[in-house]
């Protein structure tokens, strides 16, 4: 078969990297060249990741996030065949693209659009289906930030206190004199690179410590997330500007566990997943001490992620209950100071800010997002009464390469839907 | 605290080895001496295993076995407080023991007794509860054997054919010239020791190959279950006598996958778990090639295991459907030739046989069992219309040390219940 190449790189496009087409892990045993493993790092490589992202728990240890035994929240269906033709101009382009085309451009594995709580669009590609969990990567952070904001609201957590106040083990690390709020909004000053194309970036040491990368026989580094966090050095002054560093989420996870005495899996289940009307249990990856990867280990089915987005859109209500305090939602939507965000230089996110581990657009619709590497997203547009959730396995490890075909698509979809007064 | 010692060894008794009391994996992070890990082998050690056996998927990679979206099969409750006082004489003892005492003697984590489909007794101890999966260990084999027997019944698998006919990769191994039936009934002649107290026993190499034991930095051995199976040597003649070797189940798993083109997790879900009215999904451990541990990797909630026992007792019916053909159940109940079983020398199992990976008592009640290391059990007594399922974490790795306080207890319970005409 002739292999088509995407415009951006010498890698196969969405259709030609379809994991079912490529036959990863098929056979007993699969042929050597079709294996996707943890031990050789292949699970993180494109296009193998298009299989691995739907099969995380067959590759690494995980903990369940139970949906409990409650009712499933209905998501009424009002399929809208007109939506595929919604068009937009990608960032940096002069040519229109349709919604349908954007799905391939972004290596989408699955996408759900809710309008006024109805499923108006739902598609699955590759190895994903409605009943299979997919890794959410950094979308996880927005769940952790929301739980932290709830604890602040409840008075259990003081966001003006220092990290060392809650976690003395971090006193000598860069986090020691940061406030909880600085961690929650990622305005800490940390010597930690998250440039995935740099093999010496600290993100890799972090991943190895957390058991997310193979270690090699002579590995002498940190054995756990917590051990790694204690080694992080300061670089600059806390509170000056936003800098996206995953370790803030893991530190926040540590603070939350210390304050509540519960695991993150328990908290996610008790505070969110069991009160959402979820269809399926979720799960989260853990390190060798059982510590969940708060920075990116959550795996969910896509409709349940949409239910969480809808909960956020509905001021924290689901199943007739106030699950998240309205004040917490308002605090997230209000965002942080875009002037602290600007120096980070995200050219696709002009005027945005970062608050409680959510990305706030400050656009005229009040849209805000949870964002994960390789294109994971929860996009909430309050004005258009729209929630979009997407799982994807883009070959680019970072949203700056993915935003051009997705952010304008989401906004175009919102503009299209808001015109409709139908339901 | 004074530590009480059990009679059988210098190890703490059930109460003093309670994983909640000992505080395994509590804290963020847990203290070093309270960690239970895969990497240092502690998950397999007593008393840490009393925690690990309820938390397998937080320690190793696993695959889901979905219950699907069907109704839960009701298990009506008729709690019988009289059952704790049922008494019996342990094998090799002259003193009576009560049912209640036997639970501690056997380091029981949970036990369910069904009579005529009613839950008449249900207890959870240690870290287990009704909604937490526990590892079933070799009880797994009886599921695999049942699926194989179904495939034979359906004509998809010829049990008179050689293993090499289905899996040519095994032609040069000990399995090559064994028949499928010899594998199903474990009358193969294999150079493979399953004596857990012998550090050189092949079971350990098997476990390391399958990713169930840490490998050490210089490990050069087989990388997967399938690679290990190809290395097994013959010792004696196939078909002469029963010899319990876990690798038969893994070979049978290979045959089943080859014949069906499906994974064991898919088969277990499609053929059993989704048709049982299970309350919870189950899961199974996998090696680094994604191959499920057919010899012992199943994890289930205890009531769902009881539902499977009840399905067997009801001639293969559940939820008004014939899930397993009646002829398959009859073939299991009929058992194999006890004369081929006797040479194995199980003093607690006189006159028993082994058929389709089930243990058949040939007693007057027609009782038969699925049995797992450390005391896991499904005990089906057709005459008494009774099913007992138990999860346990005994410090003895083998049922011969556990049977004395359980087999006579099960039979005494059957005799007690059969007198009752109440429901």
Brief summary:
The structure is a homodimer of 423-residue chains. Chain A is 26% helix and 14% strand.
* Beta strand % of chain A: 5-15%
Principal-axes shape call of chain A? globular
Domains of chain A, number: 1
CATH C-level class of chain A is Alpha Beta
- The CATH topology name of chain A reads Beta-lactamase
- Total count of strands of chain A: 15
Radius of gyration of chain A: 20 Å
Tell me about the biggest sheet of chain A? 7 strands, antiparallel
The most extensive contact between chains is: A-B, 32 and 32 residues
Contiguous uncertain segments of 5+ residues of chain A: 1-8
Strand order of the largest sheet of chain A: 5-4-15-14-13-12-11
With helices defined by DSSP (H or I, 4 residues minimum), what is the helix count of chain A? 14
Q: Looking at this structure, what is the CATH superfamily of chain A?
A: DD-peptidase/beta-lactamase superfamily
Q: Which architecture of chain A does the CATH hierarchy give at level 2? A: 3-Layer(aba) Sandwich
Order of helices and strands of chain A: HHEEEHEEEHHHHHHHEEHEEHHEEEEEH
Summed over residues and divided by their number, the pLDDT of chain A gives a mean of 95
């Amino acid at each position: 078969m002739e292999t088509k190449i995407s415009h951006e790189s010498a890698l196969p496009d969405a259709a030609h990297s379809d994991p079912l087409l490529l036959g990863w892990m098929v056979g007993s045993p699969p042929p050597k060249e079709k294996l996707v493993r943890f031990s050789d790092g292949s699970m993180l490589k494109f296009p193998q990741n298009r299989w691995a992202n739907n099969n995380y728990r067959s590759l690494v240890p995980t903990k369940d996030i139970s949906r409990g035994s409650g009712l499933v929240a209905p998501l009424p269906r009002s399929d809208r065949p007109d939506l595929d033709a919604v068009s937009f101009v990608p960032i940096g382009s002069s040519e229109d693209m349709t919604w349908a085309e954007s799905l391939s451009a972004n290596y989408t594995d699955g996408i759900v659009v809710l309008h006024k709580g109805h499923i108006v669009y739902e598609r699955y590609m590759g190895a994903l289906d409605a009943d299979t969990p997919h890794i959410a990567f950094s979308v996880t952070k927005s769940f952790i930030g929301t739980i932290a904001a709830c604890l602040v609201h409840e008075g259990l957590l003081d966001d003006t206190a220092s990290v060392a106040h809650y976690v003395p083990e971090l006193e000598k690390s860069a986090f020691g004199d940061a406030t909880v709020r600085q961690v929650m909004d990622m305005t800490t000053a940390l010597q930690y690179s998250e440039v995935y194309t740099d093999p010496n970036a600290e993100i890799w040491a972090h991943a190895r410590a957390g058991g997310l990368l193979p270690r090699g026989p002579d590995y002498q580094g940190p054995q756990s997330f917590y051990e790694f966090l204690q080694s992080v050095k300061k670089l600059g002054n806390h509170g000056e500007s936003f800098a996206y560093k995953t370790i803030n989420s893991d530190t926040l996870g540590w603070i939350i566990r210390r304050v509540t005495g519960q695991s993150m899996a328990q908290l996610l289940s008790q505070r969110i997943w069991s009160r959402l009307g979820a269809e399926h249990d979720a799960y989260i990856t853990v390190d060798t001490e059982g510590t969940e990867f708060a920075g990116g280990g959550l795996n969910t089915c896509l409709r349940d992620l949409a239910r969480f987005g809808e909960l956020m859109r509905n001021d924290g209500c689901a199943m007739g209950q106030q699950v998240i305090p309205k004040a917490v939602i308002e605090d997230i939507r209000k965002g942080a100071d875009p002037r602290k965000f600007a120096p980070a230089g995200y050219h696709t996110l002009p005027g945005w800010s970062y608050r409680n581990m959510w990305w706030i657009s400050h656009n005229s619709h009040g849209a805000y997002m949870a964002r994960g590497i390789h294109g994971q997203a929860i996009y909430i547009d309050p004005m258009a009464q729209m929630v979009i959730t997407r799982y994807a396995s883009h070959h680019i490890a970072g949203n700056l390469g993915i935003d051009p075909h997705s952010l304008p698509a989401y906004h175009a979809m919102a503009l299209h839907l808001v015109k409709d007064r139908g339901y």
